[in-house]
Amino acid sequence: MINLHKYPFVRFLMPYGLGIWLANNFKGLLSEPFGYGIVGVGLFVLIGMQLKLHSYPLRWLFGAILSIILVVAGVLNVQLQQPSRNATHLIHDQVPSSFYKARLIEPAIKGEKTTKLLLKLQSTVDSNGQIIKDGLILAYIKNDDNAVFPEYGDMVLFRKTPISPEAPLNPDQFDYKLYLERKGVYHQIFLKESEWWIVGRGYRNPVFFLAYNLRNKLLHAIQENGLSGDEFHVASAILLGYDDHLPSYLRKGYTAAGAMHVLCVSGLHVGIIFLIFSFLLGFLKQSRFQQILKTVLLLIVIWFYALITGLSPSVLRATIMISFVLFGQLFKRNGFIINSLAASAFVLLWVDPSTLFNIGFQLSYSAVLGIVLLQKPIYHWLFVKNYVLDKIWGITSVAIAAQLATMPFVLHYFNQFPSYFMLSNLFLVPLSFFVIVSGMALLLTSFLPFIPQFLGWVTYGLIFVMNHLILSIEALPHAVISELYISWLEVVLLVLLISSVLMMVTLSARKWTIPAMLLAALLLTSFTWRNIKSHQQSRLMIYGLNRQTAIDLIKGRDHVLIADSSIIADAFSLSYNLEKHWVHSGLNTKPVWFERNATVQHTFFDKKGPLISFNGKILALWDRYNQNQFLYSRQMKVDYVLINGNTSECLNEVRRYFDFQILILDLSVPDWHAEKWEQSAKDASVEMYDIRKKGAFMVVF
C-alpha cells in the first residue's frame, strides 16, 4: 500500500486538482477576496504552528489546513485565467469592428480544403481608430493554388467578424466549444482569399521559432532520404510528433490495435531517447561530479528532443516528467519516481489548470503510473528461465500494466477496447525502438553522404513492417470490442477494483479480498441499474444535424431513425453527432432507419406519410413535399409539428390544418426562414422550439 507521507507532491496534487475540478464544475464558486483571505489566514496559521507548536497528535490539523489552502488555490488559479478578467479580450466586444489584426503564433496546418491558423489578436480597427485587443482565434482559410500562406510570427489583417464556436446540439455529443475554450480559444473564423491579407511580421518567440525551423529541416531530411507516402507520415509522427497529415485509416488501425501511443510522441519516445543516451553515458558514474554531469547532459538531450518536436504538449509532459525523475535519481531519493510524477503534474497544472481535463494528460500519467506500480508485480507472476521468453514476458507485462491503468479512461472516452493489445505491443514496442534508433541516427547524420540514405532505407523497411502488422491485427476477428461505456463513477470504482485485486494477488493479502468483493458488487450494481434503465427507456428525439432532419424513436434498447439516406451514408456525421449518445443509452449504433416519406407499421410506432404516432403522441412533418397532403383534410389534433426544409413561413396555414401544442424547427430550415417562423410564433403566442438555439428536442415517456 502507498504511504502518502513519503510522497508530499502526491498530497499536494490531490487537493489542488480537486480545486480545479470544483472551479470548472461550479462557476463563480468563490469570490477572489474571500479566497485570498482563506489562503492568507491559512498560511499565517501554518507558519504559527511550525514556529510555536510541535505537537505530534495535531499533525493532522496541519495537513487539513494545507489541503484547504491548495483546494482554494486550485479554484483561484482557474478563475484568474478566465478571459472575463481581461478587459481587452474579444469576448467583451458587442459591436463588430471593420478590421481585425492578429499574429500567427503556430505554424499553419494545411489540409485538403482549408489551412488552419492559430491567431493571437493584437488590435481592431473601426471608425474610432485602432484599439488594442486580446484573445486567441482559430482561423480556417480556404486553400487556393496561388495563395501565399502566412508563416509563424506573420501579422494578418482580416475584415470578417470572429464568432464564438457553437455549443453541441445533441446529448453526449463532443463539446468542441468547451475543447477550444480549455485551450484558451473563444473565437473562430472562416476566411476566403479576398477577406485576409499578410501585413508584416510581428514578434516571434526565439525558442519556438528555432523549434519550428528545426522541425521543418528535419522533416525535409526524412523526405530526402527515401521515406515517402505512409512511411514518411508515420516516421514524422514517431520521430518528430508531426502527425497532421497521417492518413485516417492508419490512425484508425493503430487505435484498433491498442498501439496509438507508438504514433504519438510521448513518454514512450522520450523514454527511449533517455534510455539510449543513459546507456551511452553509463561510464559517468564514478564520482559525484560525473553523476551531476550525466544528469545535466541527459536533461540537455531530452529538452533538445522536445525542442525539435515543436514542444508539443505530449512531449512537454513527458520531458518534464523525466526531468523530475532525473533530479530524484540525482538526489538518491528512494521511491522518488512517484513523487516526481506528482511534482511534474503539479507544475503543469499550476501553469495551465485546464490540462487536468486533457485526455492525453490523463492517459499519459495513468499509463506511466500503471507501469511504475504494476509492471513489477505482474512480471513476477511468471518465472521464465529462457532469456528470450523472459524478455518477451517483460514487454508483455509492461503492456498489461499500461493497459490496465488506462483501461477505465479508454472505456469512458472512446467506448472501445483493443482485444489484441498484448499481441500488437509485443511486436510494436521493439519495432518502434529500432525505428527511433535508426530514425534518430538518420537525422543526426543527415548532412553526411551515403549513411543517411542507408538509414532511411532501414527506417522505411521497419515502418513498412509496422504498418502491415497493424493492418493485419486490425483485420483479425473482434479486433476491437466496441460500444462500451462506463460513467465517471464506474471509472473510479474500476480503478479501485483493479488496484484491490492486484494488491490481493501480488501481496497474497486476504485483507484486500473484502474491499475487492465490495467494489465488484458496487460496480456490478451500477452496470445492472444502468442496464435496467436502458431497457425501460422510451423517448422521442429530434436531433440537431446540419441542414438535415433526423428523428429517433427509442423504445428500450431498440430504436428507429427516420432520416434521409444521405444521413445514413455520412458515417462521420453519425459518429460525431449521435453515436456517443447511442452508446451511452445502450442502443445499437447501426439503427433501423426509414426515409421521411415512407409509410411504416412498426412494433412500437406507426408512420403514415408525414404523420408519426409513437407512445400516444402524434408528430406531423411539415415541409414543401408533405404540406400538399393536408390541403383537403379537416383540422387534425396532433402534439407536435416539425417544420423542416426550405419551407416558406406560413404559420396560419399550419394552424388551419393542425391543432398542436409545440411547433418545432430543425436545422434543415434556413436561418432567415427560421427568424420569420420565430416572429410569427411570437406574434401568435404559439410555443415554438428552435433546435438550433435549444439543442435536440426530446420527449421522455
Give helix % range: 40-55%
Radius of gyration: 29 Å
CATH superfamily of the domain at 538-700: Ribonuclease Z/Hydroxyacylglutathione hydrolase-like
What's the level 1 CATH class of the domain at 538-700?
A: Alpha Beta
**How many β-strand runs?**
24
The shape, in one word, is globular
- In whole angstroms, the N-to-C terminal distance is 48 Å
> β content, as a range?
15-25%
CATH fold name of the domain at 538-700, please?
Metallo-beta-lactamase, Chain A
CATH architectural grouping of the domain at 538-700: 4-Layer Sandwich
Number of helices: 23
Q: Largest sheet, if any?
A: 8 strands, mixed
Q: Segments where pLDDT lies below 50 for 5+ residues?
A: none
Query: Mean pLDDT, nearest integer?
Result: 87
Q: What structural category arises from helix and sheet content?
A: alpha+beta
Provide structural commentary.
- The chain has 701 residues and is α+β, with helices and mostly antiparallel strands.
- Among the domains are: 4-80; 90-204, OB fold (Dihydrolipoamide Acetyltransferase, E2P) (Beta Barrel); 488-535; 538-700, Ribonuclease Z/Hydroxyacylglutathione hydrolase-like (Metallo-beta-lactamase, Chain A), CATH 3.60.15.
- Strands 1, 2, 3, 4, 5, 6, 7 and 8 form an eight-stranded mixed β-sheet that branches.
- Helix 2 runs antiparallel to helix 3 (59-80), helix 5 runs antiparallel to helix 6 (229-240) and helix 13 runs antiparallel to helix 14 (387-414).
- The radius of gyration is 29 Å and the shape is globular.
- It starts with 7 loop residues before the first helix and ends with a strand.
